[in-house]
Design a protein that fits this description.
Strand order of the largest sheet of chain B: 13-12-1-15-14
Oligomer: heterodimer
CATH architecture of chain B: 2-Layer Sandwich
Structural class of chain B: alpha+beta
Radius of gyration of chain B: 25 Å
CATH topology of chain B: Alpha-Beta Plaits
Distance between the termini of chain A: 46 Å
CATH class of chain A: Mainly Alpha
CATH superfamily of chain A: Transmembrane di-heme cytochromes, Chain C
Largest interface: A-B, 59 and 68 residues
Low-confidence stretches of chain A: 225-231
Mean pLDDT of chain A: 87
Mean pLDDT of chain B: 84
Order of helices and strands of chain A: HHHHHHHHE
Number of strands of chain A: 1
Helix content of chain B: 25-40%
Chain lengths: ~240, ~550
């Protein structure tokens, strides 16, 4: 069971994430969009959307720092475990609450604004459930460990385990002693990764960083391809 | 000098009767799909009026176009790259659906299925966004022909720039119609605002298009365009805009709005311009200089040096020749009667307008003067400062001198031709009074009043050896993802996802053949669905009529 949960399952979901994204990009460039609903409703979106997105970006940075940077590195630059923990809990809680409130606003808006609700697909609804679950479980794990308990140093267990996945030497044993709340959060997060390429969340992968460096006006020559665009299955890749 | 060619348009507002044929045929051709019900690539506004979307010209509010920075450069008024990135999660300056109008239909079925009763059944309006009952409060053209009266007109952003007295006088005076399409600017602010780089200007003919595969729905282009001519398809989540009917242009046909214009007021032709000079002239200090500045950017195709540079830049010979014969060149540069719409937005728009003279003449006639006597007309153009101010607010950033000069020329042409028409001796003093020769004024009269089809549209086909290839490109146009119900399958990721099924677009050559053919061109067509739009009235397609009783 341990091997399945902490070795096979994560790899499976990552394969689905990468494979699914590549497949979606080839198969469905036209569907690759934020599908913004701002045209229908602006007032709530103006508060909810930046709150959620900036919050979630902060959460992402927190995860990268906490999971991918080994504890020995932060200690080598003189950051004690206690100081690190305090910063992480404080910033993490602010970011988490931002995300949570933003998401609550957005979900309420989606349900209560007629045109927005009418434009919500089943896929969107499922995505919201998984996404909200991951965020709430993560917050719950943090709050439980720090308020009910005396804090949990996931950088001794979860982080090395995750890194062990990336170097292809998975070490499931590291996860056995982790509190259940963290375990559930991790499992839910990997489920979200597997679901990711098949939802509108793909727009996160097209964050337009190139905009910062390109000239304002884009010129393009007519497409040199000849003939009608053939009907291609997704696995054959983009036409040349 | 870097020579580029631009397909450009001029509209003669004197002839626009506000029939909206251009809007309707454009809608039929491009935006009769779900998600773009509220979208009109071509719309005809009454002036004075609010426009579509409402008050779009108020750039303090909507932040479209460019502004000159302190260092003399240009940046989008809504903010540069960094600011755009930070406001990407909720664009603060995007018009909402209510600023356009909420699209609706009627519950016609109820008329047929309502049970018999005392009351006559009615077809209730239903919102196309929610499917629920709705109240129709605005549409694309609610204030057509001054509809709504003064309360509505007060909000006209251009009218607010002119003084109160002028405003009230003006409202009594006249209205005119302003047909608008995308300006296909030389310095497009929509393209500059697009974070994904999906909006591009075609290097060959300057048409500005949205790559539907690259658009990610960040919505910045809607804000960036000061004319609000980029629209957000709320079903597919992609931006869409006027395409200058490029599949037609590529085979030498005019856009559908031009082709169907009953007033024959649209002119299409090429302009050569110096691409290196665009940003320099677009950033001149005084907005009133922008009209002249844009004329500086254009290159004279009759100049051998320009032609040589154009050849060097890979512009084919027949295109250079077409640029020499371009009616747009004549109207802008030779006769100097066409003016750009809102040059102060600094986008260098390429759909220009000949301001209307008719209302001046009408007002004059009503006061008992001879409406077409030259002296009276010149006086009227000057005395009736009212339209001049307003027209200047639209076309020259408030500078009345160029507008007066245009109206004088139009008045002179009218007066000169009137004498000829009445069998009097042509008076060469008239053209001289506006700095033209008799030959020029005759040629301008031919172009504006006779307006032969081949004089109005000088469109070189996309280059001959490329014709086959380009036709194919036209058939796989970026807007080909048909949005109509049943036109595409709904994929698993929301509406219109999945690889688009190649739509069987008839090529325009085929369509042309059909239009002139004597018989039903496709005898095997019977079992298929009837496409009413393509049915040319010949033959009896299966399913179109009830079966004949005598067979």
């Amino acid at each position: 069971m341990n091997t399945f949960l902490w070795v096979i399952y994560p790899y499976l979901t990552l394969v689905v994430l990468i494979g699914g994204t590549v497949w979606r990009y080839r198969y469905d460039k036209f569907g690759w969009t934020t599908r913004s609903s701002q045209l229908y409703e602006t007032t709530i979106l103006r508060w909810g959307s930046p709150m959620f997105h900036f919050g979630v970006l902060m959460v992402l940075i927190g995860h990268i720092v906490g999971l991918l940077i080994p504890k020995t590195w932060t200690e080598a630059v003189g950051l004690t475990e206690h100081a690190y923990h305090l910063t992480a809990v404080f910033v993490g809680t602010v970011a988490g609450l931002c995300t949570l409130i933003g998401m609550a606003l957005l979900i309420a808006r989606r349900r209560l604004t007629g045109p927005v609700f009418a434009a919500t697909t089943k896929n969107d609804k499922a995505m919201y459930v998984v996404l909200a679950a991951v965020i709430i479980l993560g917050l719950w794990a943090t709050v439980r460990a720090n308020i009910a308990g005396s804090g949990y140093d996931y950088r001794e267990t979860v982080s090395p385990w995750l890194r062990s996945l990336f170097v292809l030497q998975p070490d499931a044993a590291l996860m056995t002693a982790v509190p259940a709340s963290f375990k559930i959060h991790v499992i839910a997060a990997f489920a979200l990764f597997a679901f990711w390429p098949f939802t509108r969340l793909v727009h996160a992968f097209s964050a337009p960083v190139g905009y910062l460096t390109r000239p304002y006006v884009v010129y393009r020559y007519r497409d040199p391809r000849g003939g009608l665009r053939p009907h291609r299955p997704g696995w054959e890749g983009p036409a040349r | 000098m870097r020579v580029m060619a631009q397909t450009a348009m001029v509209m003669n507002l004197d002839k626009c009767i506000g029939c909206h044929t251009c809007s309707v045929t454009c809608k039929q051709a491009w935006t009769n799909r779900s998600g773009v019900e509220y979208v009109w690539f071509n719309n005809v506004e009454s002036r004075p009026g609010l426009g579509y979307p409402r008050t779009y010209q108020d750039q303090e509010k909507w932040q479209g176009g460019w502004v000159r920075t302190r260092t003399g450069g240009l940046k989008p008024r809504s903010g540069g790259r960094i600011k755009k990135m930070f406001s990407i999660f909720a664009n603060p300056k995007m018009p909402s659906m209510q600023d356009y109008y909420e699209p609706w239909t009627y519950d016609y079925e109820h008329l047929l299925t309502a049970p018999a009763g005392e009351d006559l059944p009615v077809a209730r309006p239903k919102s196309l966004l929610t499917g629920r009952d709705t109240k129709v409060t605005w549409s694309a053209n609610w204030d057509d022909s001054l509809g709504g009266g003064n309360e509505v007109l007060q909000a006209d952003p251009i009218l607010q720039q002119v003084s109160d007295q002028v405003r009230q006088e003006y409202e009594k005076a006249f209205l005119f119609f302003l047909p608008r399409i995308c300006e296909h600017c030389l310095n497009p602010a929509c393209a500059a605002s697009c974070p994904s780089g999906a909006i591009y200007k075609r290097a060959e003919d300057g048409i500005v298009l949205v790559d539907q595969d690259r658009c990610r729905g960040w919505r910045m282009c809607v804000t960036g365009c000061p004319y609000k001519k980029v629209y957000f398809n709320h079903r597919t989540g992609k931006a869409e805009k006027c395409t200058f009917c490029f599949p037609r242009i590529e085979i030498g046909q005019p856009t559908i709005c031009s082709e169907t214009c009953v007033g024959r007021l649209r002119y299409i032709g090429l302009m050569l311009y110096d691409a290196d000079a665009v940003s320099l002239y677009a950033s001149v200090d005084d907005p009133k200089d922008l009209y002249q500045a844009q004329r500086e950017v254009f290159l004279d195709p009759h100049d051998p040096a320009v032609a040589a540079e154009a050849r060097k830049a890979g512009i084919p010979e027949d295109w250079i020749d077409a640029a020499r014969r371009s009616p747009v060149w004549d109207l802008i540069m030779k006769y100097e009667v066409a003016l750009p719409l809102h040059p102060e937005y600094r986008t260098m728009p390429m759909v220009w307008y000949i301001p209307p003279l008719s209302p001046v003449v009408d007002v004059l006639r009503d006061t008992g003067h001879d409406g077409e006597e030259l002296g009276n007309l010149f006086g009227a153009v000057d005395a009736l400062r009212i339209p001049l101010d307003y027209l200047a607010g639209l076309f020259t950033a408030g500078d009345t001198a160029p507008v007066r000069s245009v109206l004088n020329r139009l008045a002179a042409m009218r007066s000169y031709q009137r004498r000829i028409n009445l069998g009097e001796k042509p008076d060469d003093a008239i053209p001289a009074a506006v700095g033209m020769t008799a030959d020029e004024i005759n040629a301008m009269y031919r172009l504006l009043a006779i307006a032969k089809y081949e004089d109005r549209y000088v469109i070189p086909a996309a280059h001959a050896e490329d014709a086959h290839r380009l036709e194919a490109v036209g058939a796989e146009c970026s807007l080909e993802y048909e949005g109509g119900p049943g036109m595409y399958q709904t994929g698993p990721f929301g509406e219109a996802s999945g690889t688009p099924v190649p739509v069987q677009v008839e090529t325009f050559h085929m369509l042309r053949e059909r239009q002139t053919a004597d018989e039903f061109t496709d005898p095997g067509d019977e079992p298929r669905r009837v496409n009413l739009l393509n049915w040319d009235g010949k033959g009896r397609p299966e399913g179109l009529f009830p079966p004949r009783s005598d067979t």
